[in-house]
Amino acid sequence: MSKIIKLFLKQGFTPVDTRVFKLGSVLPFDCYIQRFNGFFIVLESGTFLNESTYRKLVQKNLQIFVQTRKYEDYKTYVQRFSPQIGERHTSYETQELEEVLAQCYDMKSLLKQSQSLHDKLKIIYTYSKYLLNAWLQSKQRELVPVDAVSFLMEEFVFVANSEHLTLSKFNDFLDEEDDLAAHLVKVAFFAAMIGSHINLDFSDQKKLLIAAILHDVGKTELDEELLHKSDFLSEFEYKLIQRHAEASAHMVRQSGLKDRVILNAIKDHHERLDGSGYPKGAKEDRISMFGKILAVCDMFDAMITIKPYRGAYSTYNALKLMRLEARDKLEMRYVNLLVKDLK
What we know:
mainly alpha; Hypothetical protein af1432; 2 domains; three-stranded antiparallel β-sheet; 7 strands
């Protein structure tokens, strides 16, 4: 572990959580640490995690990276191993929310060390999803960790304003699976793209991203089978799902975030310009600006995500379909801003 094997420069790397590593397992990917302007490989693929190696890897509190092109191998590794191997239990899924909250504030130092916009965005994506997953699996789901979310989104605004944000900067690491945490973070990323074009000040950019990443938290009150149902919904089931917009705003408010701009955006993200949306059937100017932006981002992500009843649309086809079939429902200038940054 103390021996640096090789230095790599200007390649894509992704931060990972060492607590998913299991004593007695064999790593199917190389592990790296970041030093100065490069990444050093410290454990090679095929390494057996004996007691000594495992202790150094986990207890030294190192930030470990894998090559982005090998990230699928890392995800497969996480899914393969049970929460307990041998005498250790270091399950990612059962980690306490408090520990994750503390780690979120370490993200700032990682961002400072990272050179490329792509790597910074990947760090924000990973930490944001990590936080939301820990919250979803905690016993405190009625209270959203709004302070940590606010911190992460503030750092996101700094990064988004540092360089022109386009889909190509982060499209390679977006999840395609129908996962709530991933959906929330992706909608925030798409909202950041739009927000960078409409002359928002820093405070409003932050509010937009907070609303985006929290817009669907009320879905935690719904049954998982209902959310992932592959058949047509009954009228009763559809009405149940329609409650999530107001439930999300209520949950955020109860968690201590009472900003009216954020709450209105969350409540409005399923309203449509022609009045066909919910919960209130609001039209045109009765829908908040941020609600209109979230409506576009939410629909876009739904279309490029694998659903139980269909595969994922390509980004190009999703936006093309939105321009053709949602012209009377969505604010087209926001759709066109996504098209502009598609490359």
